[in-house]
Amino acid sequence: MKKRVLHRDHSDLGLLALRLGTGAVLAAHGAQKLFGWFGGGGLEGTAQAMESMGFKPGRQSALAAGLGEAGGGLLIALGLATPAAGAAAAGTMAGAASVHAPNGFFSTSGGLEHPGYLGWSAAALGLTGAGRYSLDHVTGHRLDRTWMVPAAFVASGIAAACVIRRRAAALAQAAPAEADEAQDS
């Protein structure tokens, strides 16, 4: 009689590792924005930076970015409400990537590599689900229903598109004023 060899599926462990790493990085970046932890500017410093990048009003933009990163990251790490968490973090990172896109891809030139990768990873986790080692699994997937995936990603996509479009309009409006100031100097 032949012994049956059990194949161990390690995908749940891989999802746990990816969730913890991605979630921790996102949460740390959000904590920089919200609380000034880890060398961040806190809400006031981030609000000023957001205004200078064309995200207006700066305080609300800073709060939204901080919550998208910190909240989305924490929920991703825990594996709780994973579709909404992944979509929220991905949408937030789309806004960040739009700032860096003019500098190309690689982060060494200020490009979108880092926010793009975080957003892509968050989206992949939101689409895939958290796996067996998660609070979604423990709670019987009450906050991780099939219908929540498209709903969360459509809502996040619309919100991200609106934020990016609004920023582009603010930058376009500011460009002639800046050109006039430079000409007067």
Automatic annotation (TrEMBL):
Transmembrane segments: 74-96, 147-164
Membrane keyword on record: yes
Pfam families: DoxX (PF07681)
Predominant place of localization: membrane
UniProt subcellular location: Cell membrane
Lineage top rank: taxon: Bacteria
Its membrane topology: Multi-pass membrane protein
Family annotation (InterPro entries): DoxX, DoxX-like_oxidoreductase
Alphabetically ordered keywords of this record: Cell membrane, Membrane, Transmembrane, Transmembrane helix
Any coiled-coil regions, as ranges: none
PANTHER family in alphabetical order: INNER MEMBRANE PROTEIN YPHA-RELATED (PTHR33452:SF1), OXIDOREDUCTASE CATD-RELATED (PTHR33452)
The family this protein is said to belong to: Belongs to the DoxX family.
Designated name of the protein: DoxX family membrane protein
The species this protein was found in: Streptomyces tremellae
Taxonomy of the source species: Bacteria, Bacillati, Actinomycetota, Actinomycetes, Kitasatosporales
